[in-house]
């Protein structure tokens, strides 16, 4: 990019930059996201609240108590936290667990192969096979 920009390049020591070396506009991604929502016909929502609702609900599902969730979400009143946290029945929890396993399956262990213990050296095995096949 620096070569292509030539004299227009401005060094700012950033990981990602505009074609002329200037830092990226931090709001550009957000604006593009809003444009995509409108183009897709999806109702505009505040991402900040959505992520807080998600975090509060997940913390609740993981067994965190309300004062801890309240602290993490930076709420000053427990009533505010309760609005962000959705409770789940045991049936919902089971369905959520199964959905999670569907999207992120448990890792499978690679096949360990034969279970016999080999104590012979590969060259010894080759000599033994050669001796058996060339024996009179």
In short:
The protein is mostly helical and 136 residues long.
What is this structure's SSE topology?
Blueprint: H1 2-5, H2 28-40, H3 47-61, H4 66-72, H5 78-84, H6 90-103, H7 122-134
Descriptive overview:
54% of the residues lie in helices and 0% in strands. The mean pLDDT is 78. It starts with a helix and ends with a helix. With 136 residues, the chain is an all-alpha fold. The protein is extended.
Radius of gyration (Å): 30 Å
* Percent range of helical residues: 40-55%
Sheet-strand content, in percent, reads under 5%
Counting DSSP H or I runs of 4 or more residues, the number of helices is: 7
Sketch the major β-sheet. none
Q: Summarize the helix and strand pattern as letters.
A: HHHHHHH
List keywords for this structure.
single chain, 136 residues, mainly alpha, 0% strand
